Amino acid sequence: MKALLSQTTGGPETLAIGSRADPVPGDGEILISVKACGVNFPDTLIIEDKYQFRPDRPFSPGGEVAGIVAAIGSNITDIRPGDRVIGWCCWGGMAEKVVVTRPHCIPIPDEMPFDEAAAFILTYGTSHYALKQRGTLQPGETLLVIGAAGGAGLAAVELGKAMGATVIAAVSSAEKLALATRHGAASGIVYPRGPFDKAALRALSGLFKQACTADGADVIYDAVGGDYAEAALRSIAWDGRFLVVGFPAGIPRLPLNLALLKSCRIIGVFWAAWIDRDPAGFQTSARELLDLYQQGAIRPVISARYSLEQGGEAIAALSARTAMGKLVVMIE
Length: 332
Description:
Blueprint (H helix, E strand, L loop, with lengths): L1 E4 L10 E4 L9 E11 L1 H6 L17 E9 L11 E5 L8 E5 L3 E3 L6 H5 L2 H14 L7 E5 L4 H12 L3 E6 L2 H9 L4 E4 L7 H15 L4 E6 L4 H7 L2 E9 L12 H6 L2 E4 L2 H7 L1 H17 L6 E6 L3 H9 L6 E5 L2
Parallel strand pairs: 8-9, 8-11, 9-10, 11-12, 12-13, 14-15
Antiparallel strand pairs: 1-2, 3-4, 3-6, 3-15, 4-5, 5-7
Helix pairs in contact: 3-4, 3-10, 6-7, 9-10
């Protein structure tokens, strides 16, 4: 099979098209003929050996795929060859075929296009787990989403609105704010790009506080990190929940006196580990998300599509933090 391969540690420019033997599904595994692969922030890290997992080389980046079941291993009874599915694999997705385990495979409705399916489960799954299980977001609460025009952030905006919250979008451009507003944000701010000195950090904190009003944000969804995290934490409500989702702007250093003063909670969100620890919970979450999709309450925004040969370009575009919504690599 044809695959985009990482054969040496480095950035997107080190990736190249190559050939690998077709994978074979083992016990409890499913072989997917990949039609599309979503591009996500872990793809930018894993090829540079900066992610939690370090696969042996050569490997293909891409952890979120959609396609057709080509074959099944033993002990698979509820999925058949020919079924249309989403698969989560951590890596290996930017290839013509990939093997996933049964708990990481979800049947999709016939009306769901493969590009939207490949842009669905990681971002919506992460945001659903963050807001429901970790943040316990309630109707009528205020939700501040930092990085609200990215794949995960935009999913959080849509889900926050569907859960009855008032959503405030924090983004880096007016164009991104317009996108977040179209997808459910009630209001928002455009924040400047760092790095920040002390005066700029104070101004950034003031911007977040102004957006959240005097009562503050009940839940803060931080998909950016860096200096934005502390500035946003200063705008949290009493007994608020600060969700640690991602760090494209760097790993923040939060002064814990802020958590004491607001009696708030700083909560990690590690969706990939949760789905392995609670596969039944993951399947329930996936069904709820597909129901929302079929109701029209959520729908991935795909800003660009790339060929398999252009997969490195897609990862580079995501690394630059200029993309809005999701980027997808089309295998066919």
